[in-house]
Amino acid sequence: MAALTPAPAATARSTADSAPRRSPRTDSERLFNRVTLGTLLALALLWLAPLAWAVATSVRPPGELATDPTAWFSAHSTLANYREVLAAGRIPYWYVNSFVTSALTTLLTVCTASLAAFALSRLRFRHRRPVFLLILAGVMIPPQLLMVPHFLTLQVAGMLNTYWAVVLPQVPNVVAVFVFKQFFDGIPVELTDAARADGASWLRIYGQIVMPLSRPAVSAVTIFVFVWSWNNFLWPLLAVTDPQMMTLPVGLTSVQDAFGLPQAQLMASAVLGALPLLTVFLFFQRRIVEGIVGTGLK
Amino acid sequence: MSATAVPGAGAGAGAGPPAGAGAGVGAGAGAGSRTGAGSAGRGTRTPSARGGSAHTGRWTASGMLLPFGVFYVVFLLGPLVYTAVAGFFNGSLVKGGLGDWVGTANYAQALGSDEFWSSLGHTLWFTVLTTVPLILVALALALMTDRFSRGKWFFRLAFFAPFMLPSSVISLLFMWIYADEIGLAQGVAKALGADAPPSWLGDPDWAMISIAAATVWWTVGFNFVIYLAALQEIPREVHEAAAIDGAGPWQRLRLVVVPMLGRATTLVAVLQLVASLKVFDQIYMMTGGGPDDATRPSLLYVYQTGFTDGRAGYASTVALLLFVIILLISLVWFALIRHTEKEA
């Protein structure tokens, strides 16, 4: 759900943030803080452990894995598993497919949702309220339940096994409309009224005034739609059966099915599958968390 | 910040530097006047644009709503209507089309079949196993993290990073961890003193619990960051006032902080319930619904009847029944959004 407001309302919070929150007053509080920190660090390590375990497994030579499967470290660490997986598999194709389909989904979603939200926020037309409520009600339709009609539609359109099959059903995103409308509602009416009085068309006001002002909303929607689309599994699994056209998450299941692939290579594939979003996350941690929390879609 | 639907959402608003937002509006004003200056030369257009604004307004609105509307109708509303209608026919995925009218036969079959009820039972069992810990663990982690002003980024990284990963990576990883004999989980259980640890994914009694545990690890970060943002919204003065009144850390937590997280908890609970009821990915990959269908959730049942058996009509019936259940829960979410909309 949306919490992005263009209004500069966060002054109180940001000062509270920069100042140290509470300085411990008494010995018992200091002890309490130390115990808390210890627990928290232990839990953080527990949370990082499975990822570290995957990496540790992926660099072990296959022979060693058989003799001592649960050892964390190997004296003969090797990147051979990664080389094998990259050479034999289709992972590079899946990277490209995932990127193209996610980018197309994001672009179409941002354009269509913001345009609709602009009309709902700024234009006065009959049945505006019912139209808005109808769109909002779509939030209650889980797209996963629509797999049969989606499949039939794209089958009839002859689009299965194409990028469009993956992209199109993901485009109508009600939450994106909601986020944009909330943001647009916060932009002062005087701005658009003045442009209107000067004879600018609504389309121009949308493109040249409102959208440039709405960068926070655009970036939030871009982030959550891209991540959600990149990780989407059930629909791409049905839409594409050609291994060359699969997205990364779907492709990785075929790695798992490939009988007899050594564990170390499976883990190398998993690490390669985790790498793109994890890298992006490391660099843009704060914005991504805000984008995903601010839009509240799951 | 009156428009905040989620207490946590404040993170979104608060995150952007306030000065930046102000500057943005200022720049916008500039842009507005520039547009004005630019179109002043074509002032002749203004009267006609204004005169017909009621009429052209409607056409502009329709035009702007059209692109989204087409996608909405073709891929959301239409398919829902199809699902409702197709449930009364015996359509097949192979032949296409609706098939023949069978009345309520599909509904009778679904409601009378063990498979429907057992898969629904598994979905609900998974929902219970995940929703409760996902709320409590997230709350605990956020409360602890909130005590420290420095190092928040590290905990956010540790707890949220798994949420960014695709379900298939999670599945590959946990199938290795849960592997019989050679997996880490059995190794740890043995080290802790279990003589014969269960086959985590192969034992019908343990499979769902194991999948739920992996899911908690995977997705707790989302609830964690929502709670963390909500906690940062609580003004410092509240803590200080409570401390001056002599409340210890535990009392402050129980009597002051937790009650102020009501909205965040509602949001987290509703999102979590809806997400858990739609569980599919990790079960499809880790157990395929087995052993002996012991973990098959409702959505996998829809998938199997529709795409393995090719029974589009029957699958639609099951999908619609599942939709009704999820609908009842998401109505709460809808009410929340509307409430926010009115405030805004």
From TrEMBL, chain A:
Does the record's keyword annotation contain Cell membrane?
yes
| Biased composition annotated in UniProt, kind: Low complexity | 1-18
Checking Pfam families in the record gives: BPD_transp_1
Q: Which GO terms describe its biological process?
A: transmembrane transport
Q: Where in the cell is it found?
A: Cell membrane
Q: Which UniProt keywords apply?
A: Cell membrane, Membrane, Transmembrane, Transmembrane helix, Transport
Q: Which Gene3D superfamilies match?
A: MetI-like (1.10.3720.10)
Q: Which InterPro entries match?
A: MetI-like, MetI-like_sf
Residue ranges of the ABC transmembrane type-1 domain?
95-284
Q: Which PANTHER family does the record match to this protein?
A: ABC TRANSPORTER PERMEASE PROTEIN MG189-RELATED, ABC TRANSPORTER PERMEASE PROTEIN MG189-RELATED-RELATED
Similarity annotation: Belongs to the binding-protein-dependent transport system permease family.
The protein in question is named Sugar ABC transporter permease
Q: Which organism is it from?
A: Streptomyces nanshensis
User: What lineage is this protein's organism placed in?
Assistant: Bacteria, Bacillati, Actinomycetota, Actinomycetes, Kitasatosporales
